[in-house]
Model the fold of this input.
Amino acid sequence: MPGTSVISCALWSPLSRLHIPWKSKLITSARVKTDARDTLHLARLLAAGLIPAVWIPPQDVRELRALVAHHTRLIRQRTQAKNRLRSTLHRYNIVPPDGGLFAAAQRSWWEALALSAVEKLRIRQDLSVLASLEPLIAEVEEELTRLSGTEPWLSQVVFVLQVPGIGVINALVRLSAIGDITRFPTAKQLVGYAGLGASVHASGQTYQTGHITRQGRKEMRAALVESAWMAVEHHPYWKAQFERLSARIGKKKAIVAIARKLLVVVWHVLSKQEADRNADQAMVTRTMMEWARNKSTATRQGLTRAEFVRRELDRLGIGAEMDSFVFNGRTYHLPASASARLRTATAALSRMVLEARASTAEGTTALAASPSWNVRKKPAQRQVLLCSSRGIAPLPIRT
Done:
């Protein structure tokens, strides 16, 4: 709706509101539509408070969304080029060689195919497109990984990464779409925002549910389904859920249901800033390690990989008892967790208090047995350390 989009921006500017055109049925379904009539209808709706508002993302969210969209376009172009090359092989019944079909080492094999000049031209250009896209995609993914280690995303990525099937890029896709999790009071609203909620027709005695609405953030919906397939393949809990659902409604509907459940989990862990109750500690540790070594994320923050993993596990509140883990055949030793260090310090202070009290009791007994003890003397003030939840404070002891 080109006319109303301009009007809506004009109305939003002084009132900090931006209306959703497809919800303004009074304008979109009008038989006579002019700018003057649209302005009048919008003014009346605004005066009555009937213009639906849309959340306006801050600058960092807008930039991340733009970068995610750019990454998606590059991936789509690479997929299209590969599909064109594969279709050429199918068209001429050519058996591809073993190994990576689009690796640089296979370039000579493609050029040596006995095809017409036109087909060879298309193959050369598609290969050139692939060669030019690879460094561009790598550069964008490096920037996305860098952003994952900076605020405001650093404190949020760790809670999304613990969910099975989600990597760093996938987590940033979700966070860019969600923006501020507090604008979704319930998980049901976030599900509707992603277009994963079921369509409903309820009237009188009729109540029917249909397919998902597919309204909302398309990129988040695709990322959720992708992570759902990974979760049901590698995580025992989600695998059992998928098998139970697929036996009843089929695999296609079951994987969409798993994607919806994963989004509900994302809402809970982001809203409550806590660990997933079904999280596998070993899998979460490996995911944190992959994040630490990906594009030197830990090194950029001045941490070793083990220190980075420990910090993120402490943020989640899990793995306090872990002292080492194995990754790619190598054993990494984790530093003590924050909770373990606190328990050690508390125990040490408790011992100090007990020793101080014991020494005070011994001194009092010895003083009472001394012949020079004078009851008229003012009692001396002695101090011991008192350890409490509020800290350490001197405690006067009369002797």
Residues 339-367+379-398 form one domain.
